[in-house]
Request: fold
Amino acid sequence: MENTSKRYWKGLEELRNDATFVKNADSEFANPDLSESSNDLEEGLLGGSNTQRRDFLKVMGFGMAAVSLAACETPVHKAIPYINKPEFTFPSISDYYASTFVEGGDYVSVLVETREGRPIKIEGNPSSTISKGKTTARAQASVLSLYDIDKLKGPKRGDTDIDWDTADREILSQLSSVAAKGSAIRIVSSTILSPATKAVIADFVAKYPTARHIMYDANSVFGIKQANQASFGKAVIPSYDFSKAQTIVSVGADFLGTWIAPIEYMGAYAKGRQVGAMAGGKKTMSRHYQFETGLSMTGANADYRTAIKPSQEGLVVAALYNKVAAKVGGGALSTPSVDVAHLDKAATDLANSRGKALVVSGSNDPNVQTIVNALNNLLGSYGTTIDINTPVNYRQGDDQQMNAFIDEVKGGRVGAAFFIAANPVYDHPRGAELAEALPKVQLSVSFADRADETASLAKYITPAPHYLECWGDAEPKQGYFSLMQPAITLIFKTRQYQSSLLKWAGKPADYQAYLKNYWRANHYSQASGFSSFDAFWVKCLNDGVLEPNVGAASAGGASFTGNVAQAAAAIAQRYKPTTGMELSLYEKVGVGSGAMANNPWLQELPDPVSKACWDNYACLSQKTAKEMGVAQNDMVTVTVNGKSVELPVLVQPGQADNTVSIAIGYGREKAGKSANGVGKNVFPFVSLTGGYATYAAFSAKVEKASGSHEIAQTQTHETVMGRKAVLQETVLAAYQKNPKAGRYEPKVQTSEGPVNPTDITLWNGYGKPNHSWGMVIDLNSCIGCGTCVVACNAENNIQVVGRKEVLRRREMHWMRIDRYYSSDADVEDYTALEVASANPEVTFQPMLCQHCSNAPCETVCPVLATTHSTEGLNQMTYNRCIGTRYCANNCPYKVRRFNWFKYFDNDNFDYHFNNDLGKMVINPDVTVRSRGVIEKCSFCVQRIQEGKLTAKKERRRLAPDEVQSACAQSCPTNAIIFGDLNNPESTVSKVVMGEQEGRAFHVLEEINVRPQISYLTKIRNKDEEPKDNKNAKQETPA
Amino acid sequence: MSHVTSAVRTPLVTGGKTYADVTEDISKQVEGNPTREWTIAFTIAVIVLTYGTACLFWTWWEGLGVWGLNKTVGWAWDITNFVWWVGIGHAGTLISAILLLFRQKWRTAVNRAAEAMTIFAVICAASFIMMHAGRPWVAYWCLPLPNTLGSLWVNFKSPLVWDVFAISTYFTVSLVFWYMGLIPDLATIRDRAKSKVSRYIYGAFAMGWNGSAKTWARYEYMSLILAGLSTPLVLSVHTIVSFDFATSVIPGWHTTIFPPYFVAGAIFSGFAMVQNLVLIIRVVFKLEDYITVEHIESMNKVITLTGSIVGVAYLTEFFIAWYSGVEFEGYAFINRATGPYWWAYWAMMTCNVITPQLFWSRAIRRSIVWTFVLSVVVNIGMWFERFVIIVTSLHRDYLPSSWAMFHPTLFDISDYIFSFGLFFTLFLLFSKFLPVVNMAEVKTIIKSSSEKLPVSVSGVAKGERVANPTFNKNVE
Reply:
């Protein structure tokens, strides 16, 4: 076929096909000067004449962008980039350093998450067998204290700022003059867990022989140590293993909340309480009896709880001993009998579970503790649930030495006093006397990080840094060591007190080197398998802990040699029935003894039981309040030993009648903006009975005072109103017969008969092809401690709003723990249902965004600010939110929070988010929400995203349980399990699968919102049905 | 309008008014100097508006935290006020559209004022939509506008978006209807104007009205078309507002009865507000011959009817809450009646269900004073109705742990007062500068001169026998 297509030439050049033409044929524009421009390239992109259209556009685009950028005022200020980037620090990548949280005697082995060199979050260190990767609320909150603007910026003489050289010079000269005079030198501290620090102090004492180290605790358990001295010849506190106990009896010991070492006990206790898929199919659990005055968090978890007066405490222990002795063989004590509920039952259970029983007492009376020891000895607890050969060091305080110290100061016999992490003017019962006498001391030095009640009276303050800026070690339990390393350089001109003491002892002040040498001498020598000390040191720093290389060490037994009769006689003499009011002092899980009171996260953490924050108050029972004619928030005057305090009343179900309970740790005056003036200081109510601090008084006067003071509570309604759709519970025996016992399965009536509410739906649902993030919350494991709440605060930049806003019911917590008391009323009697039982059963229910698959919030948002992800997440887009709050109204779980004000950079909310230092705690992965938008739990989507990206970079799928939400990570009892429901290997899937036909339920299942969170029924180890079950409606809604 | 009024019917305009009288009586308010009463009222309204604006400014400056809302009760006075004002806004359109289609000619005397009230009430309602948003400066995101924010659109599933459409449509149609009705009257005032300025201004708004037959014909067509358009709106707007609640999952909100119940309630409160306004206007502007007791009685009958519907709805809700067997629903209603907000519930029941029944008495429903007082009571009751629905349902919903109380603050109250300032300022401006009665339409219903009343008879008082036998028919 003839080719008819014509060919047209662009010009003669193409026809001629000459070289220059061919070379440039592809360029868009003819370029007549090709030969001349070839050497012009160095003139730049535009300078050269062979500039192409694309180059032109690039340059023009850049120019426009540059001009418009220059026109904008850049809003970022004070963000200083790395000039030389540290070798192993990458912007936006977190580094984790193992360290140790130590606050007085509280200990947690932690991993510190740092971003661009600033610690932003505390995680548990899984390498530790003591804290087992778990944390406490205080450990979680401690990172905020690092950025506390109220701390001192450098050393001080009185009110004058001085530099370290001056401080050293002046203190040294005075110290030598004191030493020359031979006056006593006293180093007063709270419990010091660090062996290296003790060596430093020993060095200091060696240099100044008149020096002595005195330890005391604001929450003393000195009586236990003394009792063990009497009983076993060892002045120690033993290790308790709650997981091995089948029957636990606690007389006034809040061992889950505040007694000695909750971090150890919480996990162990929960282990004994977990059943079903949470515990490998186990269908037994421990039984827990609690005899106590106020309703503590521990008491709230007990199966049987009896309210007793403080004056009955000794008698209850003695009676229990007698009853157990009667069963297992042993002489009876001659103490007056005491008639309180559940005593016989407890004794029977104890006797029946010999070798698997544990009795603890919160009393600081060595006589009571001696009987407790004898009782545990009868029950064979030593060597099983109690290990006295592996003592713990959490509370080493000696009440008698401290008492003697105050006498010495008053007598003018002390020439120099040093205060290490000690604030006795505030937290010692004789604080006022000390405050008066302290000026008599020639040289008084406090190492406090702020001018607190004691430091402000000291002549010098040489501030020590926060533990996250420090080197150090700890030995919480004999043979278990832990290292502390700085996660940030010193923020202020502070110096570790160890360095100061070394310097003043004439030694090199480098504590880091000292510590290394100490470890080289004491630990490296016993370690094996390391090529060098450096390798050993790096390994220890990396792990954070150094623990005995044995498996489950068998608990050591001991032979009891205590004088029971003598103790019983002392008890009979001291504990006598009273008719008037009695006082009991307790610690709150958040604020504790008040050392960390200036931490707004802790102040706003509601008390697990009363749900009150930002205050302490006088807890009265319903009956006593009624008899006194006072109601919640009315002021009362509490008078003990001639000292009075005015406090508002909190009507506390479960409180023993004719008693008043008040929390210590409040009423700080010089702790900082967040703590000052919050509550009242009741340490003066602590009495020293026979040299032992007594946190109770058998005679107190409580009188109605004028006025009222509203107590800020995050939850004001006490009961669950018989709503089984919210809370489902049963007893162990019923559960053993039927794993679905206590479940509430409502049906909806249709023309085809009753069906499950989830079988009828309007919605098509969302696919979850890849991951499906979900959670299981075991109501049996949750003890209500609130660690998750603080962890969530820290992870998600949740704002603190303060007492006034909490009173207006506006706390911002994404994660909360609902606490329900049982009621004695019938289910239809709504008015009576609102009133809690006098001694209620308590249930804790962590509540957070349920990430509903049919989310009511998503449909109502007018602007699609809250949407569903393909991974089952209910997402919130803050910058799309216009703040109609419709989603919050339509949330059946009421977990959405609205930013009523701008909470940062606002002086009305002075909780560390209005200054640059405090804002260093902000997690850069999470937006700080502006005012006018809704926020809520995101299932820590930033962690999910980070985990997915890491996996993607490594070209693998996410491992099961690789991503953990902050709440699940921190939970000391594993009550919260987070993970991918689509991954059959993940723990959460396994538990959900295992409990699908058992304990797993969705809260408010009948409204068919299909939450991603399953709850497991609460099981009480009781013989009777739960109180609320009797009342609950059994009929099915249509 | 080409209405033919039968000679046997009671005249709707009394006093033997001629066309000239009508023009004179109504235009003189516009043309004359402000009266003392008007000046005082306007001053008060402006002061209230200024105070309210200052409070509103502070609300926006500080954040919604100045209100008493909390984590549990996310809406209270804001949405209560919004629904209340929207409800009030229902009467105007009902009078001008539905009553037009039903040929209820008595409406001509009150429809202008009622429509103006509607427009101002909707403006007040809209102000609460803006006010209640946490970030009002981006509230326009509720509109389906093309934008540069990516592929972002509104959520067509959200009742709040439906609200935006419903209210803006309602506002637009009402405004057009009202304005169109004004044109012949504006032309009248233009033609009578003595100053150049007013002739120019009224002339501009009269849009070249020339009174020709063709113009009148178009006017009639438009009235009918707009009435046809507005009629479904009367029913739809409050239906959609009720969807804000009815489509939710909250016990006490999640109720299928809401649409008819809300519409009835809206007409109920709207008529009560019209009563309040026209009772004042007729006295202040001496329009007793145009807005007669017959008008007032007719509107009272509507109030009695709708009040009874609302009452039945309240009882039905209770019955269904019990009959459903749903624990949460049942509790929500028991809590309404006996919970901490029992007083609000009983205020609502008293004001909305019990007191309007007094209108069964002819004497009361024809009494100016009773009508005025009961209309105020009705609007108090209707405010409480919305408060009860919103606050008592929210404050105790599913999880008892979150149960909370709502306590209003100064700013809740002041921002409500703001809306009164706004409403009355606008309404007073309207009543001064625009004819408050539709002159053109009123002229269609006055009797022709051959049937004129004896001059001595100034009005048809109750039961009064009139010389002219044609009057006695309806009175009997």
Notes: Residues 905 and 914 of chain A are 4 Å apart (CA to CA). The two ends of chain A are 84 Å apart (CA to CA). The longest strand of chain A covers residues 696-708.
